[in-house]
Amino acid sequence: MSLYTAVATATGRDGRAVSSDGKLDVELALQEELGGTGVGTNPEQLFAAGYAACFATSMQLVAQQKEIDVSGMSVTAEVGLVPNGQGGYQLEVSLRTKLPDSLPREVGRTLIEATHRVCPYSNATRGNIPVELLAE
């Protein structure tokens, strides 16, 4: 049984995406780099925002369980759209986690790896797309 189900409808890369509760309502546009106008957001930006937020929240949970202070931490997700060699495309992700300077590097690395095992986005993408974990 699902704890929560998000529902959204989109009309394509040049259109709109709207959540069933109306809290998300965004204009979509093909990126300029791909020949579009770029006047709206795109699926890769939405995925990056969702993954970054989910990973940050998961890290806060893991850090709390391990009694590690991660105040001031942030996560930046870079989502690339790359050709898959078969006429289609795939995603690739780099997660850049900015940890507090006071946190020892080895502790931070262990925390990032533990978070990667907990985060729902990480679990959904594991084995499907490359995800690079970076501590900064």
Automatic annotation (TrEMBL):
Taxonomy, superkingdom: Bacteria
One GO process term, biological-process aspect: response to oxidative stress
Pfam family, one: OsmC
SUPFAM superfamilies xrefs: OsmC-like
Similarity remark: Belongs to the OsmC/Ohr family.
Listed name of the protein: Organic hydroperoxide resistance protein
Provenance organism: Kitasatospora phosalacinea
